[in-house]
From TrEMBL:
The keyword Transmembrane applies. This is DUF998 domain-containing protein. It comes from the Bacteria. It comes from Microbacterium barkeri. Keywords: Membrane, Transmembrane, Transmembrane helix. The chain crosses the membrane at residues 12-33, 45-68, 89-114, 126-144, 151-171, 191-211, 223-246, 258-278, 285-304, 316-336. InterPro entries: DUF998 (IPR009339).
Length: 352
């Protein structure tokens, strides 16, 4: 992208942000019209503002995708077009989720610092407009040139934002003495943590779809069978992550634990399978994979038998290491994969 194209892109994002601000401010003012409301809690501006911001962000992403990447599917067979469209829809859902949870988190933090403040309808509308402009501008820019590594950042941003909101609103302040699953065990806001895991699972499966896209750009139709297994492993890992949220620990502990351990096993399997399929097996990815494996072993030993921290610490370290590995993988793919789309010559998706 040259300087002129970059300037045009930034101008488009700026214009989209202003449109999102106006839409968000008008919709927020209409929803919040009436009496002044607190920043967080029951009857606050939080949930209406979050809903408006989520819809604006999802709409901005959809508009940008159609405008800038609509031609990517030209020449693709129906199955490849369908995969691309479903993947974009999943990203739009994740963008909406991140935006909504970010607004709710901001409301909880501001309510602590501005204790007792009540916001009038127009003030709430302006705050909603600001949140919509920030989220909508980000979503619009994301839709212009969506790359796989940006999806991983979105995935972990979504997981972290949802977890932070759950921590801020947790009914049990001592949940961290056990594990993160306690955030989804009952309580008025347990839906936030469990819902984050469900949508995060969908987004993890979507990351697999884009990994498959990049591998296909590198290897072509001859490798569709092997690429298909990578995509399936990502989809199963996403399903396992969603299962952790759908099966809260206080209602189905055994099933919850099975889903959690299945997620770990599937992540390990897809790591091995992905490293094997990438041509040349880049050294940076191999070294990072070995380092992550060693890090996980050390983290487990610090949990048991050394008892340096609780299972919460182990889970936090595991998530961080997973982010490091996925980021390295996708940077490697970004360096190897051509920029342009690569329509498949196969009319039907079938392994030969």
């Amino acid at each position: 992208m040259n300087d002129v194209d970059a300037l045009r892109s930034e101008s488009s994002v700026t214009a989209a942000s202003w449109v999102c601000f106006i839409v968000g401010a008008l919709a927020g003012s209409a929803l919040l019209w009436g009496v002044a409301r607190p920043l967080a809690g029951e009857g606050s501006i939080g949930f209406p503002a979050a809903a408006v911001t989520a819809l604006v962000a999802a709409g901005a992403f959809a508009m940008s995708t159609v405008r800038f990447r609509g031609a990517e599917t030209a020449g693709m067979p129906p199955w490849q077009t369908a995969v691309s469209r479903v993947s974009d829809a999943a990203v739009a859902l994740a963008v909406a989720g991140v935006s909504a949870l970010a607004v709710l988190c901001a409301g909880e933090v501001l309510a602590i610092g501005l204790h007792g403040l009540e916001v009038p309808p127009l003030g709430g509308g302006l705050l909603t407009g600001i949140a919509s402009a920030a989220s909508g501008g980000f979503a619009y820019g994301l839709g212009m040139r969506l790359r796989t590594r940006e999806l991983v950042t979105l995935l972990f941003a979504f997981l972290i934002t949802g977890t932070l909101f759950s921590m801020l609103t947790a009914a049990d302040p001592w949940w961290w003495e056990r594990n993160f699953s306690q955030l989804g065990a009952g309580g008025q806001t347990s839906w936030a943590f469990n819902g984050t895991l469900v949508v995060g699972g969908l987004l993890l499966a979507t990351v697999g779809s884009y990994v498959g896209r990049d591998l296909h750009r590198i290897l072509g139709d001859d490798a569709l069978g092997r690429i298909g297994w990578i995509v399936v492993l990502f989809a199963l890992a996403g399903a396992a992550l969603a299962g952790v949220g759908l099966l809260p620990v206080h209602r189905a502990q055994l099933a919850h634990n099975v889903a959690a351990f299945a997620l770990l096993a599937l992540l390990g399997a897809l790591a091995v399978a992905t490293i094997r399929i990438i041509p040349g097996r880049p050294r940076a990815l191999a070294v990072t994979s070995a380092g992550v494996a060693v890090g996980l072993v050390v983290a487990v030993l610090l949990w048991r038998p050394l008892a340096i921290y609780s299972a919460t610490g182990l889970e936090a370290v595991a998530v961080g290491l997973a982010f490091v590995w996925l980021t390295t993988l996708l940077r490697t793919l970004a360096a190897l994969a051509p920029e342009g789309s690569r329509p498949s010559a196969r009319v039907r998706l079938a392994v030969r």
